[in-house]
Structure formats: C-alpha cells, structure tokens
Write a sequence for this structure.
C-alpha cells in the first residue's frame, strides 16, 4: 500500500525516495532546486481572510460539539449518505446566505466547513465526485442511513 495521495509508495524499507521532475531552477546565489511546476502550494490557502475565519469557526464548533477523543472532531464521525446530504444542503444554504449578504453569522466559513465535511464523508465512503447534473448520491457502498435522534 502506498503512502502518497495517488497510492505511490515513497518509502521503501528505511529509505525515502525523493521525487524529482528533472527540471531545475537556479537562484542568484547558485542554489539549485526542483521547479515548483505542478506542485501543491498549501501556503496559498492562507492568502486572504478565509483560512483564519474557517479556523475560528472550527474552534467555535469544538465548543458546541466537543471532540469525541483528543484531536478527533465530532463531525469526523459522519459516515452515511444522510450525513453527506446534510453537509451538502448546509453548504448550499450558507452559500445562498453569503451570496445574499446575510451577516448574522460567518456564512462564508460555513460554506468552507460544509464542503470540506461533504468531501471528507465522500472520501471516507470512497465515492467519486458528483457531476453537476446530480444532486443525490446513489447509496451503494455507503454506510447505512441512521435517523437523527
């Protein structure tokens, strides 16, 4: 089993493999590095206000819905189509509230949270992204739907 996002193994035995595109960038100092072409640049998510606002929302959520274990947020328990659908509906509701300029809560951060939750559940259930023409996911391979209590 691989440890890369694509399933590729980058560790064999006790040694790491260093990925290399074969391309080089040379700096004025003479230092050479692989180029950043095609690489994920996580730091770019911190540009603008949303990363902080999403983090603040997650902190408020932890107060309302405590972690189920140290470092395990309550929302990560979701594993069914019903929970996936709740995330999707809430994402849409928050988007419309944000779009309409409602400021009673941080709806933009609510969009981020709910899309992330939906994608988390979809990945957990190994579902592929839904096409734009579909609203409800088929239930094959998803955990049984439990009624909210």
């Amino acid at each position: 089993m691989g440890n890369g996002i694509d399933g590729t193994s980058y560790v064999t035995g006790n040694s790491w493999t260093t990925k290399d595109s074969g391309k080089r960038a040379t700096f004025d100092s003479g230092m050479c590095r692989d180029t950043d072409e095609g690489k994920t640049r996580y730091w770019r998510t911190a540009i603008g206000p949303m990363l902080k606002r999403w983090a603040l929302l997650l902190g408020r959520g932890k107060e309302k819905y405590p972690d189920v274990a140290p470092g395990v947020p309550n929302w990560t328990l979701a594993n069914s189509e019903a929970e996936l659908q709740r995330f999707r509906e809430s994402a849409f509701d928050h988007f419309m509230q944000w779009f309409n300029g409602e400021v009673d809560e941080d709806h933009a951060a609510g969009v981020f949270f709910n899309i992330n939750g939906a994608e988390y559940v979809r990945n957990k259930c190994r579902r592929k992204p839904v096409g734009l023409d579909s609203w409800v996911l088929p239930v094959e391979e998803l955990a049984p739907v439990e009624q909210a209590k």
The radius of gyration is 20 Å. The first helix runs from residue 50 to 64. Strands lie at 11-12, 15-16, 24-26, 32-34.
